[in-house]
DNA sequence: AGCCCTGAGGTAAGCGCTTTCCTGGACCTT
DNA sequence: AAGGTCCAGGAAAGCGCTTACCTCAGGGCT
């Protein structure tokens, strides 16, 4: 590995001068030297050691992002928003997949901390388990104590900057839509029990039920993981056990798509409503009614909070949920 | 920021001892000291500075990944495979989005080089422009010269380890399928002209045409970017200009889905075949016939090559293309 | 009892870079 | 011509950590 010292020697200057030329320091340097140094850089294929630079400059520039899984379209969209803002700001983004494991999340927080990132953005539902939440919180505080910035997306357990999708309201909208269409026997495909996202969306659904005087009994609510196949399996079970359902609310679009598939397999078609309004929603048959959350906006806002001036206290921004009506729901 | 020196002082030991205890060095240390140091670590919330560690140890452990865009499902799948292998090996993965801009790709190569990553994996079509390819190649060689490993996915321009989806064969399979079904007037929605992926898939299609004695004239081939909406626009144009087409081959699934949408809008339905067999393919209507590439396998293999023992020369692995028949194609 | 050996723990030399402070020659001033 | 000013360029002190090497007790040996 060519080092700065090699370049300096090659060009017959001091490392100080070489460094100044390479980094475009404000200090003026004779043209002849500049050329010699640049020539040496080219010849030796010199690439500065980023770690040495970080150490010497001790400026934090990269940002870390922890998501459940980038290859999940939900997080892919959020990540897109995060990247857009970070890139505009000239930041390197380090993406970490926690795969929904709190321990891995913990590890990544320390790892990003160790890498001296300027900020950590955590996207994805928090954990209802309070012991877990407390441990995460402790590590995050340690990071903040060193001047690091934190923004979270979609979890309320951390007392810092946050941007929250209005999951409860979204759940309410989904319920309201189905109930005003006249449905009385509505099944729910919920996400993993441990996630706050599930809890919030479900809460909204229940509020709608109360408001419209309908029932949403436990035996019509099944849990699955937030995937297409999880949704398909759960839906198959639900329609087999409760043949009289006229509608199913799936708490994300992947599961809604799975539900559609299960219905097709079963040779039936009842109302289906999804959540998140992901790109696929309009391309399935029937096109899926869904509750839209602007996922990229979620990402953009979070990154802006994390990179902008720190607020006096924790700032919370909400991203509203909007119902998008398509053809998978209709009046009874 | 608490430093090792702080911890050592706090525990009343030298930094050497503190370092040894924290890193679990093989050197034996008295239990009393160990406890004091660990207590100090906890109290001071000490997190080692990764940059200082890298510098002192000069071991390369992280791996860099450059993809066109993680939020594109194609790359999301590949990334999943990459991550799986890297994580199993206990590596930190740094993901960079080039957004198909060669300059950004160049920048990222240097950035990863600067970060002393152990390996760089580049996923996504190469550039037909040879000046661009040459510049990339130069930077990659510089990285390799310092002992870095490189693996590329889906591009043949770099003379190192590579895993190649058999795009040409895939194109051939798509063409063969349509031609044996009896189609004679086949339209093609191709990807960006500058990408080798486009060129290869198209070449396969042409080979099939020759073999089956069919025509695939230029005016039936339109180019779009590899997105759903790009495909929809291109398809709309194509069916307006060539109303007698009986089939359309889209060179990726996103564009195929767009094609389906365009056909629906136009109130027509003709054969459509996609490419990549992404998860959506089975959930659209009609379920999409497509050419499957095992994207996660592509990723896993590439990462294995990059992390495993270096070969004597460049190693090339091929991932085969397989036709998946669904309902979007049928005999004329 | 004197010696050496052993090994826990400390000292200090880097790792590659940035940046402050210093040097010394060129140029001005009176 | 002597002194002063300026400024390009260099010397060197870190940044926080690891680790080779050294020290110096304590214990076993003859």
How does this structure look, described?
The structure is a homodimer of 332-residue chains. The first copy, chain A, is of the alpha/beta class. Chain A has 12 helices and 12 strands. A 6-stranded parallel β-sheet of chain A has the order 2-1-3-4-5-11, with helices on both faces. Chain A has a 6-stranded mixed β-sheet with strand order 7-6-8-9-10-12, sandwiched between helices. In chain A, helix 2 (15-22) crosses helix 3 and helix 5 runs parallel beside helix 12 (295-307). The longest helix of chain A is centred in the N-terminal third of the chain and has 16 residues, at 73-88. Chain A is elongated, with a radius of gyration of 26 Å. In chain A, 49% of the residues are buried. At the A-B interface, helix 4, helix 5, strand 2, helix 6 and helix 7 of A face helix 4, helix 5, strand 2, helix 6 and helix 7 of B. Chain A binds a DNA duplex (30 and 30 nucleotides) through residues 1, 3-5, 13-17, 19-20, 23, 25, 27-30, 33, 48-49, 51-58.
User: How many angstroms does the end-to-end distance of chain A come to?
Assistant: 72 Å
Shape of chain A: elongated
Q: How many strand elements of chain A?
A: 12
Largest interface: A-B, 50 and 50 residues
Helices of chain A, by number, come to 12
- Quaternary structure type: homodimer
Radius of gyration of chain A: 26 Å
Largest sheet of chain A: 6 strands, parallel
Strand order of the largest sheet of chain A: 2-1-3-4-5-11
The average pLDDT of chain A is 93
Output the structural class of chain A.
alpha/beta
Reading the helices and strands of chain A in chain order gives HHHHEHEHEHEEHEHEHEHEEHEE
* Low-pLDDT runs of chain A: none
| Fraction in helix of chain A | 40-55%
Q: What fraction of residues of chain A sit in β-strands?
A: 15-25%
